[in-house]
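Contributing new records

If you add data, match the layout below exactly. Sequence lines come first and carry their own label; structure lines follow with theirs. Keep one chain per record. Anything else will be rejected by the validation script.
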Amino acid sequence: MRTFNPDPVHRRNRLLIYAVVSIIFVQSAVPLPAFSQMRARISGRWQWAEAARRDQQQNGFSLNIIQQGNRVRGVYSLLTWLNGEPQVEDGNQTPFIGTVKGNVITITFDPDDIYPGYEQNVRYKNPANGRRPSTATLIVTGGKLHLTLTNGKWPEGARLPRQFIMRRTK
């Protein structure tokens, strides 16, 4: 009686298939640590500012994010400085809500729903009078947030680009 002895190429391919299937099975059963670590790094304060120029207004954007599972909420603020000095007395804040999928965050906000900076516990509300909310996409890469305004507008008078990169401040 003759035994089946596959050639080394077939044996190697079969072992490779078993290894790939095993890896996929293990990864689907155990959450990847990168995603759980990334979640912990989303919450906090992030900021962007344009380059400072002597005797010219410098614009900036601050984002305070609170993450709870795959949802986020928080406020953003528009910032202005002149020669390093803040130009707004009480500040401003606009609430937002959003979702997290991997390293991509999508936020929704009403650019006309602005509150004074001292007001506590502001929450997002859908825009009134049939207006549509604005949306932005944030991508977490290398400890930075890449923000892109995807739909809608910034608040009236805001001089912000449609894309910029934010750094964590807290």
